[in-house]
Amino acid sequence: MDIVLRDSLILVTTDFDTLNTQWMKDFLNHHSRGMLFLPKAVMVFRNDTLADDRKIFINQLSQHHAAKHDFSHEFFLRSLIKFGNQPIRIELGKQEEPQEVKVNLYAYNSDTVLISLDYPNSWILSYLRSQLEVYVERGTDVSLVLDVSEYKAKARLERALNKRHVLHYQIKYSYNNRFMSKLYSDFAKYSFGSLCKEDEDTQKNNFYAILQCPVGASQSALRDSYKRLAKAYHPDKILQEAPHMVEHYTQKFQLLQEAYSALKI
């Protein structure tokens, strides 16, 4: 382990064995919600509600470092405490062979999603919690149950699933066609043009929801969201999928076009 004290952060370079010690895992698990996951590294920012945990961790970090390098723990601890409020970046010092971790996705319905792992992996689960904590209804050491009844929750889930690497783990998401059809089943009640039957205010709010934007979003936000969603749900992307999935994507693509046409200036 090596520790470099900089003006802007504490840089800890270590191996995966140290990263998986209980004192290190406890500290990182407590800070998972405010943790930034970087390629081969994690960044932990100051959290005043966890100040005591941070002090304990810095003490343990100093002891471990001093023992590894055979020098005075007390002297190094005084130096480390001076940087105690700075972000802590912990990164792997050597290239680890990527390990594939399977993450299973299951939609009970359009409001509830189960994320499960075949085996416990605190790093993958910490990442998912850091991205989705506000929507977690319950969880274990191998699973999370999410409330995705709001469109912004679905959008947040999609963004979280875009990341495929955490430290030296490579995430492989596993789901079937029924996952998508259940997750977005609330769109099934719409057909192209059917939103015109709603009263004007409700109709407009629905258009914002379809584009996954807050009501009153700027034109640039609407345009960016439309481009991103239209690219993701274009029917040409899934011509080899089951017919019901092609129909689902076609319906949503039409809804996106209708919503954007109605809201753009």
The run of helices and strands is EEHHEEHHEEEHEEHEEHHHH
Q: Within the largest sheet, what's the order of strands?
A: 8-9-7-6-11-10
Q: What's the main sheet like?
A: 6 strands, mixed
Low-confidence stretches: 190-198
* Residue share in β-strands: 15-25%
The portion of residues assigned to helices is 40-55%
Number of strands: 11
The radius of gyration computed from the alpha-carbon positions, rounded to a whole number of angstroms, is 23 Å
Shape from CA axes?
Answer: elongated
Structural class: alpha+beta
Q: N- to C-terminal separation?
A: 57 Å
Any chance you could write out the topology, listing elements then pairs?
Layout: E1 2-5, E2 10-14, H1 16-19, H2 22-30, E3 35-38, E4 41-44, H3 51-69, H4 73-82, E5 88-92, E6 99-107, E7 112-117, H5 122-132, E8 136-139, E9 143-147, H6 151-161, E10 165-166, E11 169-174, H7 177-183, H8 200-210, H9 219-232, H10 243-263
Parallel strand pairs: 2-5, 6-11
Antiparallel strand pairs: 1-2, 3-4, 4-5, 6-7, 7-9, 8-9, 10-11
Helix pairs in contact: 2-3, 3-4, 8-10, 9-10
